[in-house]
Write a structure and sequence with these properties.
This protein has 231 residues and is mainly alpha-helical. The protein is built from ten helices and three strands. A three-stranded antiparallel β-sheet has the order 1-3-2. A hairpin with a 3-residue loop joins β2 and β3. α9 runs antiparallel to α10. The longest helix is centred in the C-terminal third of the chain and has 30 residues.
C-alpha cells in the first residue's frame, strides 16, 4: 500500500482549502485509472485519508461516489475494494462505447471538425511506441476516444464517458498486456483521424464501429482467460 500511496500527498494541493468529496473522488478515479490501485485492491481509509489530509467522512463520501460509478465495491465487514469486472461488465462497457462514440461521429455537422485533440493523442501514441512505453500508449488510446466523444460538445456525454473509460481501464489492468492490447489500434486511430480530417464522417463512423467490435472480441478473449486463471 505504501507504494500505491506514493504521490497522493502531492495531490493534496489539488484540494485547496475547499476540500470536497468530489475532488477526492476525482483524484482517486485518476489513480485507479492509472493503475496505482489495481482491481481487487483494498482501499485503506486511514492510509488514503492521511495521505490526502481529508476527514474520514469526506473520504467515505468519495468512496460512495466511486461505488456509484462502479469503480469500487463495498464488502460487508471487509471494507472497500477496487472493483473486479466480470466479462459481462466488459461487454456492456463496449456496448455503451459503440452506442455513444458512433452516435457522436454520426451526429457531427459539416466539416471541418475540431480534430486537434485527436491528432495530439495519435502523436502521443506514436511517441509511446517509439519509446516502448506501453502504459503511455494505453493512456494515449483512451485520450483519443475521450477527445472523440468531446467533439459532441456535451458536458453530460463527457461525464458519462469519463466513468465508462475509467471502468475500461480496470479491464485493461486485468488483461495486463498493453503492447498487444493497444498497439494494433494505433493505426486505426490514425485512420479515423484521417477520415475526419477529410470531412468524411460516414467513413470515420464505419472505421470506428469495426474498431470497437474487434477490440471487444480481443479484450473479452483475453479477459475471460485471465479471470478464469485467477479463479
Amino acid at each position: 500500500m505504501a507504494e500505491q500511496l506514493t504521490g497522493l500527498a502531492d495531490d493534496r494541493v489539488l484540494l485547496g482549502r475547499t476540500s470536497t468529496a468530489e475532488r477526492v473522488s476525482d483524484i482517486l478515479r485518476s489513480r485507479i485509472a492509472e493503475g496505482y490501485f489495481p482491481p481487487g485492491t483494498r482501499l485503506s481509509e486511514d492510509s488514503i485519508g492521511g495521505a490526502l489530509g481529508v476527514s474520514r467522512n469526506t473520504l467515505r463520501e468519495a468512496f460512495r461516489l466511486l461505488t456509484h460509478e462502479r469503480l469500487l465495491v463495498h464488502e460487508l465487514n471487509r471494507g472497500v475494494f477496487v472493483r473486479v469486472l466480470t466479462v459481462e461488465d466488459v461487454e456492456d462497457i463496449y456496448r455503451t462505447r459503440r452506442l455513444v462514440e458512433c452516435a457522436v461521429v454520426r451526429g457531427l455537422g459539416e466539416p471541418p471538425y475540431a480534430e486537434e485533440g485527436l491528432a495530439e493523442a495519435v502523436a502521443a501514441g506514436r511517441r509511446a511506441v517509439r519509446e516502448g512505453d506501453w502504459k503511455a500508449l494505453g493512456t494515449a488510446n483512451i485520450h483519443f476516444h475521450r477527445e472523440l466523444v468531446a467533439l459532441a460538445g456535451s458536458e453530460r456525454t463527457d461525464e458519462l464517458m469519463r466513468s465508462v473509460f475509467a471502468e475500461l481501464r480496470l479491464a485493461f489492468h486485468v488483461v495486463d498486456d498493453p503492447k498487444a492490447l493497444h498497439e494494433p489500434y494505433l493505426a486505426r486511430n490514425r485512420q479515423i483521424l484521417g477520415a475526419l480530417q477529410a470531412g468524411d464522417r460516414r467513413e470515420a463512423e464505419k472505421l470506428l464501429a469495426v474498431y470497437l467490435d474487434d477490440s471487444l472480441e480481443r479484450v473479452v478473449e483475453v479477459y475471460r482467460r485471465r479471470v478464469g486463471e485467477d479463479g
